């Protein structure tokens, strides 16, 4: 089952999720991030920091609505962090709202926490373990089993409060009762549905985010609901479980209660109490701190410690499904502190140690590792030929270039994720274009300083690049059009200009760059084209003149011919007239 993943998003050149995933459980394929299910510990950090808000979560909301719609007895177990997360005036308003949605009973998961506290105290009293680490946080448990398997013997063989509570509710109301957990944690989904060791205790998971959506759909406002009561007895100090150090405080409160009740009446009890008190108690939260603590355990630096471990900084109040409301960790902690009675829960549910037991195993992941030669080949593909070429900038999400090369080999990363290499390639290509184009290109800022110019522009100016960048554009060319564009912010395109020295004709384009408050100036040399056009024009003029001369000469010839024809015609006319008259007179 895949609890979390990413929808299609604009992941190109981002890699923020890879950088923040400390166990590197994210792969990038075709410039799209994906969660590696087997590597993931479901901490939800990647989804919190994704700038595209591209998270997906396997929601159980429709399943829960189905239970209620079918009339099945459905009881909701609500995590104690609700006090610092949800917006209400009285805690009982949350109970009333959930009952309006159709839940048979509303019980606090802190009731299950009380059972877990008792088991932790039993382990401390026995004092047989070198170190004991709490197992309330499923993300931490996954971290140990997958990445620090040699530390699994230190994990307390106890279920989480959620599982303890689910088992207790089903024991109390029957196995066919549906139990829904409501909390701020994504990893609880994997624990409840994906872990065969605790299968059946919890039937569905709802997050506080999902509850808010559901209440809005149903038109229910928490602040307008009545003040109803929880179905469970007051769990008291066990409500502190979501706060860093809350488990330790609960254990200490239980110990103090036991001392007050004078249950250490025998030597055995006294020895157990002294043994339990001999453990150093410390809480660790935040993934990096938890990893550091586990590395210390691996080195044998810690002994006889009772360690409360949480992946989320500040405890469960900072869970990834509570960030929508929990803008102030301090404020939430104060709210929970005020709602908690710092006493041990006396009406403890009846459950045996066997019913609360859980074994942890070595689920260490074995990713195939490349050879040194394969690593070098991958590094060479991004122009890293020597150790000096390995910048280890971390932009790709991996601490070193070698780590990234290994990830490429394992199919977790892509070659193109190396941003310095991609930038170098882009700059290289742009430089090739800039330096090989026959056009003159330069950039001028609002103060008329030359900010950049290519080789052709340098040839035009008759200076090198460094000198050109230290001078003003008007020192070299007529800058009237440039000044006009800088002031009016309207670009000029393809305007024919004759350079001041008169030896060059160009097409001028001056484009305003708003982001830089500067202009891009491009001169396209059209001198040869203009010369050819002039030659064509002169040829046309010469041809026209020659044609006109021929026409004039033909007109003169025509006129001369016409004159000769006129004289000949007159003489013919006279001769014929005389002949006619002679013939006529002869007949008379």
Head-to-tail CA distance between termini:
142 Å
Identify the overall geometry: elongated
How many domains? 3
Number of strands: 16
Task: Describe, in plain words, how this protein is organized in 3D.
The structure is a single chain. With 588 residues, the chain is of the alpha/beta class. The protein folds into 3 domains: 59-339, no CATH class; 367-426, 3-methyladenine DNA Glycosylase II, Chain A, domain 3 (Orthogonal Bundle), CATH 1.10.15; 437-525, Beta-Lactamase (2-Layer Sandwich), CATH 3.30.450.20. The chain is built from 21 helices and 16 strands. The strands form 5 sheets. A 5-stranded antiparallel beta sheet has the order 13-12-16-15-14, with helices on both faces. The chain has a 4-stranded parallel beta sheet with strand order 6-5-8-9, sandwiched between helices. The longest helix has 61 residues, at 527-587. The radius of gyration is 44 Å and the shape is elongated.
